[in-house]
Every structure is written in structure tokens, then in C-alpha cells.
Amino acid sequence: MTMPEFYSEYSPQALRDLRETLVGQLKHVFGPSRGGLRHEIWAVEKALGMHQQYFSQSGQDKFLNDEVLKHRTGGVFLELGGYDGLTGSNSLFFEKELGWTGLLIEPSPANFAKATSVRGCACLNAAVGSPTPFAEFLEIRAGYTQSGGLLANIAPDLLERIRQHPEHDERIAKIPVRSIREILADAAIERIDYVSLDVEGGEMAVLEEFPFETIPVEVWTIENITDSPEIPSFMAGKGYEVIEFIGIDEVYRAT
Questions:
Q1: Which of 94, 90, 159, 85 is nearest to 122 (CA)?
Q2: Which of 58, 92, 124, 244 would give a disulfide with 39, using CB separation of 3.0 to 4.6 Å?
């Protein structure tokens, strides 16, 4: 049972009381644990029927729209790890409601096909990281379907947890890995308002290839499932600060 399904069994008053308690706790926390609180608050608010126009898993799109991008229209996004283009999408709200354009990248052929059917933006079927002719890609066809990625990047404990799902079904394919620098050059993208980076443990490989020197980015959400200090240290060196934790994502804004 997912968290939203769990909360659907609560009465509206119980949900409102729980939301008030969680919001109170949020005022005293900053760090990865804050992300978990924000995710739980989002699930409670969704169960109350709030935020129906938003798609992110933990409210990333609403936070960015309200607090950082200020309802900006006509922006440009890059979503790496776009899944099916709809489920938990961090970029769909901006495309659908605010007229943004951009590029969605998804390595799974099945999910890519779904994304192209529901999105108006450019979509690319590719794995992104340190370029190599072939790498093993774990495609999860049942179970934790949003946790697929390059096999070498998935932490052993996470991989074990993924494979323990009672409905787990996987396929391992050998696919090429492309550099984000090359992809952006081919797409002629010169500036980006927002990057969503969620590639199941391969985030540093993407960041190390990103052309920070030529393509300015205002704000990033970066999945950091292991709370690794490497990502915030790297981003600080590129002129970004952590401004929020949402779910297992860290939000970085240019200083």
C-alpha cells in the first residue's frame, strides 16, 4: 500500500489534524529528514484533495513554482529520468500549465514510448552518464518500476530491496550511455530554467559531464537517495546552494 492509499482511509478531520502536526514539525528541521516530512505532508494534502494540478511525487513542482520560479511562463526544463512522462513527473506541470518547453530523457524503451504519447516536449530514449558503448541497464517491469537504472550505479542494498518486491520482474539490457554535454549540444539548448535529475544513483556521473561553463541553470532538483555529501559539495563548487529537501531530492539554486 502506498502512502496516499494509506491516508485515504483517514477521515478528513484526522488528515487535517495530522497535517497541522507535521507542518509544525517541519519548522524545526533542515536536512534530509526534512525531505521525508515534506513527502508525508504532501501525501496527506493529496488525500485531502489538494494540489490536483501538480504531478511530482513529493511536491517538488509546487515548491519550485511558488517559491523559486514564481509562476514563470515560457521556461525551459530538462528532466533526466523522466519515466513515463506522467507518473511523478517534475516537469509536466510547467509544460501543461505554464507553457514551458524542454527535453525529457528516459532510458527504458517501454517508458519512453509512454512518455512520447502523453508529452508535447521533445523526448529522448537514452541513458546518460559517463559515455560508454555498452552498459547494463536494469529495466523493472513489475514491482518498484520507478527504480530502474544503470546496474553499476544502483547501491547493493537498494538493489536487494528492489528485487525483494513480491511482484518484481526485471530485464537487463546492454545499452549505450551518452554524455549530457553531447545531448544538449545536439538539442541546441543554450539555457535551462530547471533541471530535474533522477537517475537512480548515477547523478554524479551526469553532473561531472554537465557543461556548467556554457549552459546556465537557475534551479535543480537532484535525487540523493544515499544522502551522499559528494553531491552538495560538488554543487557548491559550481555556485549552487541547497535551499530545500523534498522527498529524497535536494533543491539547488544558483547563488
A1: 85
A2: 58
